[in-house]
Amino acid sequence: MSTPLAAAKGMASDGGTTLAGIDEMLTSEPPPLRAVFVDKDGTLVHATPHGVDADRIELLPGVGEGLRLLQDAGFLLIVTSNEPGVAMGRFPASALTQVEARIDELLAPFGVVITSYGWCTHHPAGARAAGAVACSCRKPRPGLLLEAAATQGIALERSWMIGDMLDDVEAGIRAGCRAVLVDRGGETRWRAGRLRTPSAIVYDFADAASFIVDGRRKVRASQSS
User: Fold this and answer.
1) Which of 147, 148, 150, 201 is the most exposed place for a label (fewest CB within 10 A)?
2) What per-residue confidence (pLDDT) applies to 131?
3) What residues contact residue 1 under an 8 Å CB cut-off, 6+ apart?
4) 216 pLDDT exceeds 50?
5) For 23-65, what is each residue's pLDDT tens digit?
6) Domain with 52 in it: what CATH number?
7) pLDDT at 19
8) What is the reported pLDDT for 8?
9) DSSP assignment of 189-219, as one string?
10) pTM of the predicted model as reported, rounded to 2 decimal places
11) Catalytic position from the list 39, 164, 167, 168
């Protein structure tokens, strides 16, 4: 006969699971997924003109190790990038498939798997060109993140954005995430404001991953070593 305490915990007095406990396990919802959204050029890979020549794409230092740390911590990994070259006729949308394949190839030795890629292929904001549209997916707008969250079942409040520009930070915060800025010296518009204030500013991707997984302590330790 099970004790009240055992029954309350769904356990039989002999240490087994009661029918109520089994029913609870079968009907309980899994915890919501969490993700890290990662910018491409200047964050994930070296920035190159147009960023779609697969032969020239190379990972930045610490990216493979950092992504593996995030993956092992249970985060989905989603790449998001503005790619206006498609709308501007500089390269076809099909070129992005080759970019994805190249990034996957570079990350394979680290055992890292990108969950999905999100591309905004529209003109830059304010462009006056035939076919230009005001889209909701070009960062700093959060459309790419919101779409991925809806598709993958991601809890944005438990997720993060990593980028090298404040537009990346703003996109993440607008979507409901927290954000880390990897300052590589490319940001030139340091406009203040809540939407453009990251939770941390680091100088290496691995430190961004450590901040997300382990907090400030490990980042400070790596910087002092």
Assistant:
1) 150
2) 56
3) 13
4) yes
5) 665 566 667 899 999 999 999 999 887 778 888 999 999 999 9
6) 3.40.50.1000
7) 64
8) 39
9) ----SGGG--SEEESSHHHHHHHHHH-HHHH
10) 0.81
11) 39
**102 domain residue, yes or no:** yes
Alpha helix segments (H runs only) across 74-113: 95-107
Helices and strands (DSSP H and E) totals, the chain? 8, 6
How many distinct structural domains can be found in the chain? 1
Q: In what order do the strands lie in the sheet with 178-182?
A: 116-120, 76-82, 35-39, 160-163, 178-182, 200-202
The one catalytic residue in 14, 41, 55, 214 is: 41
- Residue 13 falls inside a structural domain: no
Residue 17 lies in a domain: no
Residue with tokens 């390269």: 91
**Is 41 noted as a catalytic residue in this protein?**
yes
Residue 52 lies in a domain: yes
Compute and round to an integer the Cα radius of gyration of the chain: 21
